[in-house]
Amino acid sequence: MITLENRFFPLRSMVCFLVEGGIILLSVLASLFILRLKGDMSIISSEDAILRGIVVAFFCQSCMYLLDLYDLKHSHSWGEIFFSLIFSVGVVCIGIGLVSYVVPEFGVEGRMYYLTIILTAVFLLFWRIAFDYYLTQLAPKERILVLGTGDIARMVGQEIRKRERLGFKLAGYVSTDSNKDHVQAEIPGKILGNLSRLKEFVTEGGIRKIVVAIEERRGEYPVREMLMLRVGGCNVLEWPGFFEKLSGRIPIDSLSPSFFIFNEGFRKGKIVLLLRRIGSTIVAVAALLVLSPVFLIVSLLIKLDSPGPILYSQDRVGQNGRIFKIYKFRSMRQDAESGGGARWAAKDDPRITRVGKVIRRARIDEIPQLFNVLRGDLDLVGPRPERPEFVQNLERLIPYYSLRHTLKPGLTGWAQVMFTYCGTIEESKEKLQYDLYYIKNMSIKLDLLIVFCTIKIVLLGRGAR
Asked: Cβ neighbours of residue 460 under 8 Å, at least 6 residues apart?
């Protein structure tokens, strides 16, 4: 497991990606070798084969990424894996065909082309079967003991169990004598016992990491036990930092203001902010030039589909609470909020027009916000701005909600790639947890990761309403 921008990223996913890239490249070279053994010396050179292998790997692995085959947190059935691999190979066929049409000299001789496709599909299928068996049966797992049995411990345990395929293993829970930390809810694991046997559990279970998930420090906090284990070589962690790295979000219900005041992060260097602004402006200008034909086509379709303006604007809350106008392609009826005031879009919302369903799913309705980026209202990446009507209520009901406004909002954000569309108070609360993670760990590397993930979200039309 590696750490990037204060979050755990599975090394196994990276290894899987690199191995499969090698398998695809070897499939191309194996096809070349087999045909040469049969006496066909008229095919391409080894150097050209390597180049074609890289192109095949690009198309195949891009499709596998879009189909979540590198998200090892989730298990896939054999049927899903088989379908995904066949689909990816089909994308390779289309991709190679397009490249060969644009660059005719790139074309691959028929027999080598078909042999490469067959070998790639077979080798990848056998590799995936073997790799899945390794993940579930053979791969070492870091056994983690959770100290506590309350709501926080339950929340930590749930996140650990979601990632067992990535190398984590919930060893169990140890209860404390604190009256406020008895079992309060069903927890996803076994309660091994109490503090009196803590050292025994650590020794017999081969525990090297303990997460302290106790809500209340006053009273019988196990300082002595934690100190002895830490000195003995055990890694003892407080739950907020561990949970943040594991889930990519900062829980807010159980955190005191001191976490935000004294914790590392939340500081915004002037150089980083300047680079983000320059990068956002360059991307916005380039995108507007490239997407100008889309503007014309969408504008015409909206005008033909329903009466009303092509664009519409809304007040949104920006940095430091400043109100600004955000622009979108109109995707709802002109009278969408008549009589009812502002409200969140719902799934299968009847107010959405026929063209609106398409452009919302593909996020095309957001394109005019590139002008907001140029004006300085938005950056390319940041917390998505909300409407003032919603913000007033959310700030009253959700702790730390106003911290979202310490940073310039964005066209896309960490919450958008990690969470779905929010339309309730509870969903807004969970979305805020991802926004706070981004504000705490903001960097150019994290911005690039968010942009990369956004491309996948847009291509697959996920999370739209």
From this structure: 66
**Is 398:429 a contact under the CB 8 Å cutoff?**
yes
Q: Which amino acid does the sequence have at 42?
A: S
What percentage of the chain carries pLDDT values higher than 90?
A: 25
In degrees rounded to 5, what are phi and psi of residue 315? -75, 135
Strand partners, 399: none
Listing DSSP states for 362-418 in one string gives TTGGGTTHHHHHHHTS-EEESPPP--HHHHHHHHHHSTTGGGGGGS--EEE-HHHHH
Kindly report, residue by residue over 244-296, the tens digit of the pLDDT.
888 888 988 778 887 888 777 777 778 888 888 999 999 999 999 999 999 89
Domain extents in the chain? 8-138, 142-247, 270-460
Rounded Cα gap, residues 38 and 46, in angstroms: 16
Please state the φ and ψ torsions of residue 464, each to the nearest 5 degrees: -85, 150
pLDDT for 335: 66
Contact 90, 62 (CB under 8 A): no
DSSP code for 330:
-
| Angstrom distance (rounded) from CA 93 to CA 88 | 9
The CATH classification number of 142-247 equals 3.40.50.20
25, 50 Cβ separation under 8 angstroms? yes
Give the max Cα distance, the chain: 82
> Which H, E and C letters describe 356-378, residue by residue?
HHHHHHCCHHHCCHHHHHHHCCC
Residues 407, 443 contacting (CB under 8 angstroms): no
Half-sphere CA count of 412, side-chain side, radius 13 A: 25
- Please tell me the distance from the alpha carbon of residue 78 to that of residue 136, in angstroms, as a whole number: 14
**Are 26 and 55 spatial neighbours (Cβ–Cβ below 8 Å)?**
no
The per-residue pLDDT for range 327-362, each reduced to its tens digit, is 999 888 876 666 666 666 666 667 888 888 888 888
